[in-house]
Design goal:
The protein is mostly helical. The protein folds into two domains: about 110 residues; about 70 residues, Arc Repressor Mutant, subunit A, CATH 1.10.10.10. It contains nine helices and no strands. About 25% of the residues are buried.
């Protein structure tokens, strides 16, 4: 933890970071492990996520909040997927289940497709910007910095994600209507 503390200026921020680390590290490791299937790689991904977190500490009010939990889950997933891309591996479908579990606390998807499960079914590249913007309140500029994308790319990605969500939800409504109609 000393490595992280060297990057953090104030004692208050160090205290917040320590709470975040102790509260969320195991869950982040579990999420990264599901994606990477390697202890060493999962440790690397969690380390990268915490390094990135040192730049975002001022955006977290309560380190034990659902918002903080979701943000750290996204950061761990993003770091794990970045590691996979670097090593040119393919992502398992468990990555979607892992993030859905992290955000909802559920073990399985409900029978009926709703917004929450539709979000969980989106590819990470679409889901992350939407959650960061609409659930956690980050600006497009902050999201672009966090995900290493241009602001225009973030806007376009969110537009595509919303269109895909709409298709998914309308498809479910049509199926329900066909069954009962």
């Amino acid at each position: 933890m000393l490595v992280y503390f060297q990057l953090i200026e104030t004692e208050e921020a160090r205290s917040k970071f320590e709470i975040l680390y102790r509260t969320h590290r195991d869950r982040m490791f579990s999420l990264a492990m599901r994606i990477l299937d390697s202890d060493a790689d999962a440790e690397d991904a969690v380390h990268q996520a915490f390094l990135k977190l040192t730049d975002w500490l001022d955006r977290i009010d309560d380190p034990r909040s659902p918002k903080a939990r979701a943000l750290l889950a996204l950061m761990a997933e993003h770091a794990a997927l970045d590691l996979l891309r670097q090593r040119r591996r393919t992502v398992s479908l468990d990555a979607l289940d892992a993030l859905e579990d992290a955000l909802t606390g559920q073990e399985t998807l409900p029978e009926r497709l709703d917004l929450q499960t539709a979000l969980a079914a989106l590819p990470a590249r679409y889901r992350e910007p939407l959650l960061l913007r609409h659930q956690m309140g980050f600006s497009v500029k902050e999201i672009a910095e966090m995900l290493n994308l241009s602001e225009a790319n973030v806007y376009k990605t969110m537009q595509r994600a919303k269109a895909r969500l709409q298709q998914m939800l309308e498809g479910e409504e049509a199926q329900t209507h066909d069954r009962h109609g």
